[in-house]
Amino acid sequence: MVVQQVKNPKSETNPFLRANFAPVSTENICSELKITGNIPKELSGRFLRIGPNPVKHPDSKSYHWFMGAGMVHGLRIENGRALWYKNNYVTTNNVAADLKRKELPTPRKTRGGSVNTNVMAIAGDLYALVEAGSLPVKLNGNLESIEHSDFGGTLNYGLSAHPRKDPQTGELHVLAYQPTKPTVDYLVIDQSGKAKTKSQIHLPHQPMIHDTAITANYIVVLDFPVTFSLLTAVTGAFPYVWNNKRPSRIGLLPRDGDSTKLLWTEIPTSFAYHIMNAYEDNDDVFIDVVKNAMNFDAKIEGQNNLAPSLVRWNINLKSGKFSETVLSDRPVEFPRINDAYVGKQYRYGYTATFTSDLQFGAACKHDLLKGQTLVHDFGQGRRTMEPVFVSKSGAVSEDDGWLLSYVFNENTNNTDVVILDAQNFEGEPIATIHLPVRVPFGFHGNWIADGELS
Ligand SMILES: [Fe+2]
Predict the structure, then answer these.
(1) What are the tens digits of pLDDT across the range 226-247?
(2) Rg for the chain (alpha carbons), in Å?
């Protein structure tokens, strides 16, 4: 258990330190959790999330959501029972120093920054991940940090928080970058957890590349006008800023990594953190993204002009023509799909409501065939983070599964884990596991079935 020096969030001026963005002050282990409904017996594993949770109260003026120390949260489910909820810091060197804990073993010097953006299983082990240079942190099944990992000496720099798993090969496809390095690496991680650098893409303007996607033949490279600023970095503020001098463009890099065949398409000024999915259909490449008009403009205080919108970008490979179609009129973020459809034609996506004033809310199911957005409103004051689709074994259709999410309840100041039937999306939840604690709004998570861990 940790005691922090957190100010009263009510007096806080920084939105990323207020309300349910505020960090929690303890590492907990909770059992005998209250359950409403019935947890499907088929679900045995861990439902994990990660997000920022600064140990010491940061400077309210310069703190950005992306900068806080990583904290991993997990609910252990087995055979219809909820065994425990835990939350632990990811013990990177900054956390170890603040909490007076031992630094983790590391194969080599790593950037000591926070690892706070995604948690997933890679080759049988759990890892906390972040972009921009810090090594992944290996966790054990109790969500305790074990070591920094360079995947057996195969990872030259850091990784990314958004590897894309090819459902056919089981390989992970990653774009990794770090500040001051003029190239972005295209890595493929094989099923044994070894990374191979397939290509180095020369991008000396050092863009922030948060996410990627794969299609049958390409990996998608997002190159937007948000680039590294040394001048900003030295102030201690978040070091990526809007850069009017840069165009917005999409790269399609052949999956063999041949960067001489990298195809760039310039598009209207845009920014996007997340791609929902991408796929090819004959000469057309479709890339479904949550688009922002712009972001990180230093002239505007705080997170700005997010106005997230789910859109489909279409690049015709023969004509080079680009077009955009709006897929939903709701402001959403944190898109997920049935992961068996990564890189393929698909019908359904799932998102969390996320408004330009940083309000989470209902979950959405997007039927891209019908052009319809279904909404699951969890009730007054209940706000979901990124929903995660879990397919049933023997599923007979794309949406034959469950949607799991951490839902903050501002009436109780606690968080529930809610399980929806994805085919009865607007109906009553199948199960709600009531946590006796609050899980701060964070970034990403995954359902890790027991069979995924060695
Ligand atoms: Fe992300």
Answers:
(1) 999 888 888 878 888 888 899 9
(2) 21
Rounded-to-integer distance, Cα 390 and Cα 337, Å: 9
Average pLDDT of the segment spanning 343-364: 94
pLDDT surpasses 70 at 3: no
Contact (Cβ atoms closer than 8 angstroms) between residue 89 and residue 95: yes
Q: Could you tell me which of 284, 302, 290, 303 has the C-alpha nearest to residue 331?
A: 290
Distance 32 CA to ligand 1 centre (A): 32
Q: What is the pLDDT of residues 138-150, one digit of tens each?
A: 999 999 999 999 9
Q: Assess contact for 171 and 189: CB atoms under 8 A.
A: yes
Token code pair at residue 60? 């309210």
Spatial strand order in the sheet of 81-89: 29-30, 81-89, 70-78, 45-52, 444-449
Q: How far is the CA of 137 from the centre of ligand 1 (A)?
A: 17
pLDDT in tens, 99-131: 999 999 999 877 678 999 999 999 999 999 999
**Ligand 1 centre distance from Cα of residue 405 (Å):** 16
Which string of DSSP letters, residue by residue, matches 140-195? Answer: -TTS-EEEE--TTTT-SS---S--EE-TTT--EEEEE--TT-SEEEEEEE-TTS-E
Least confident of 111-115, 325-329, 424-428, 438-442: 111-115
Q: How far is the CA of 118 from the centre of ligand 1 (A)?
A: 7
Q: How far apart are CA 232 and CA 251, in angstroms?
A: 27
Compute, in angstroms, the gap from residue 223 CA to the centroid of ligand 1: 16
Q: How many angstroms is it from 217 CA to the middle of ligand 1?
A: 23
Give the tokens for residue 105: 């073993």
Predicted structure pTM score: 0.95
Q: What angle do CA 320, 331, 417 make, to 5 degrees?
A: 120
Question: How much is the pLDDT for 60?
Answer: 87
